[in-house]
From TrEMBL:
Homopentamer. One of its GO terms (molecular function) is mechanosensitive monoatomic ion channel activity. It comes from Limosilactobacillus reuteri CF48-3A. It comes from the Bacteria. Belongs to the MscL family. Keywords: Cell membrane, Ion channel, Ion transport, Membrane, Transmembrane, Transmembrane helix, Transport. The chain crosses the membrane at residues 12-31, 66-87. Gene3D superfamilies: Large-conductance mechanosensitive channel, MscL, domain 1. InterPro entries: Mechanosensitive_channel_CS, MS_channel, MSC/AndL, MscL_channel. This is Large-conductance mechanosensitive channel. One of its GO terms (cellular component) is plasma membrane. SUPFAM superfamilies: Gated mechanosensitive channel. It is a multi-pass membrane protein.
Amino acid sequence: MLKEFKTFIARGNVIDMAVGIIVGAAFTSIVKSLVNNLINPLIGLFIGRIDLSNLVLTVGDAQFKYGSFLNAVINFLIISFVVFLMVKAINTFRKKEDNKKDTPSEEVMYLKEITELLKKNKD
C-alpha cells in the first residue's frame, strides 16, 4: 500500500493539483485584498456604507442577519467578476501567443515555395 501511495504522489497530476491549490490560496488572498481594500470602499462611496452586517430583521426572539448574507453575496459577485476579468485577460494574451506561433517563419515559407516548385517540375 505504501508503494502505491508513493506512485500516486509521484504522478504529475497530483503535483500539478498541489501547485494549483497553493497558487489558488495565494491568489485568493490577493483578490480578497483587492475587494476589501479597493472595491468595497468604492462601492461605499455610492451606497453610503461598506459593511452591511449590522442589518438585522428581528422576529420575536429570532434575529435574521440578512446584512451578513448580503455582504457575502456582494463579495462573491465582486470576486467572481475580478476572476472573470483576469481569466479573460489571460486568454487574450494566450491567443496573441498562439497567433505568433501560427505564423510561419521566412525560412519555412521559402521551403514551402521550393517544395511547390519541385512538385511542379516533377509533373
